[in-house]
Specification:
387 residues, alpha+beta, Rossmann fold, 2 domains, 6-stranded mixed β-sheet, 6-stranded antiparallel β-sheet, 11 helices
């Protein structure tokens, strides 16, 4: 089996007619890592994956695999395996035959693939192919389904067959284009765990495309957040979630969505939110309009209002069992803030109640008018540094 390889794309640009889709994208997938391309529909993530696979030609830029330039190499010769959103299984073939198809095409001659004579003149090769199909089926726990047809399988079983068909090729990397989007919610959660375990077992590079941030956060070693044909931020899931580089990234990653309220910084860098001064200072001292962002889990419910806290009218309590998300109308109802609360705290509240929340220290996110993240210091610390 070939070893995992580094996948590198440099200066990738692509347009369909007059519509640009990718803008000078640079991306390196480390050998053996699970990297996810995540973003809204139309951001260019699937096009980038198809260019890596060789299914689309870039207008500019290069693609290399394991240090070898494959920009002009056809898809079949890149030693990559693609798993699509649609399972693309042959309905008239058994599971075993579907999984064996890429090996039959690659390792048997035209005579060896003939229906009657082929099995006689390619007996040894067919045994080797059958052994690899059996091995992949055991790993994916579908060995009891090998004689069934795709129409006799559930959605999750069909997806495993599609994965098995990719596995038998023993590629240097797996490319997956939203492979779980056709499954129901419970099965998606189950298959996420299966994919993570499969990646650990195979130790191959995985490049995974999804619009589902939960998949990106739970599966990835690193994730690339894309929008408008560009990579906005590339990093580990915790880094992207806790330290977003731009307001666009902060708004896209996180569920429920991050709270945002209008703010401002003065000439000394002091931050205010809706006219209320906060104990924060922008390190570079920029003055102007800003956006103050707060994750729901970084807002704590208090019994009494605090000087730099928020008070809102409870409009809706979203009960998710272990957590309850309180939807609060603040600023005369012009803005909605969502705060996470423990069930026993939420049980004491009713719709229409005033709820006081306070932002947890050290969890402030402030973005300037362009949407770029501002470096902050707590005001007391900033004063000490000046002194």
């Amino acid at each position: 089996m070939a070893e995992a390889a580094t996948l590198t794309m440099r200066g990738i640009a692509k347009a369909f007619g007059a519509t640009p889709v990718l803008h000078d994208v640079d991306l390196e997938v480390r050998a053996g890592e699970f990297l996810t391309l995540v973003g809204p529909s139309g951001c260019g993530k699937s096009t980038l994956l198809r260019i890596l696979a060789g299914l689309e030609a870039a207008d500019a830029g290069t693609v290399s695999i394991g240090g070898r330039d494959v920009t002009g190499v056809r898809a079949a010769d890149r030693d990559l395996a693609m798993v699509f959103q649609s399972y693309a299984l042959y309905p008239h073939l058994s599971v075993a035959a579907n999984m064996a198809t890429p090996l039959v095409q690659r390792e048997l001659s035209a005579f060896g693939r003939l229906p009657v004579v082929g099995p006689l003149i390619s007996r040894g090769a067919r045994k080797r192919i059958a052994a690899r199909v059996e091995e992949a089926a055991e790993i994916l726990e579908i060995h009891t389904l090998l004689e069934r047809k795709p129409g006799q399988l559930s959605g999750g079983q069909r997806q495993r067959v599609a994965l098995g068909r990719a596995m038998v090729r023993e590629p240097v990397a797996f490319l997956m284009d939203e492979p779980l989007s056709n499954l129901d919610a419970a099965l998606r959660v189950h298959m996420r765990a299966e994919l993570a375990a499969l990646h650990r077992r195979l130790q191959r590079s995985f490049v995974y495309v999804t619009h589902d941030q939960a998949e990106a956060l739970t599966l990835s070693d690193r994730m690339a957040v894309m929008r408008g044909g560009r990579i906005l931020q590339l990093g580990a899931p915790d880094e992207v979630y806790n330290d977003p580089a731009t307001l666009e990234v902060a708004l896209f990653i996180g569920s429920p969505r991050i709270n945002t309220l209008p703010g401002e910084t003065d000439g000394a860098g002091r931050v205010s939110r809706m006219g209320v001064p906060l104990p924060l200072r922008a390190v570079d001292g920029r003055a102007g309009p800003a956006t103050v962002a707060m994750r729901p889990e970084h807002l704590a419910v208090r019994s009494f209002p605090s000087p730099d806290g928020l008070t809102g009218r409870l409009t809706y309590a979203e009960n998710l069992g272990a957590d309850v998300y309180l939807h609060l109308a603040v600023g005369d109802g012009a803005h909605v803030v969502i705060a996470r609360a423990e069930p026993q705290v939420a049980a004491r509240l009713s719709s229409g109640d005033d709820v006081h929340v306070e932002q947890v220290r050290g969890q402030a996110l402030v973005f300037d008018a362009r949407g770029d993240r501002m470096a902050l210091a707590e005001e007391a610390a900033a004063v000490e540094a000046v002194a």
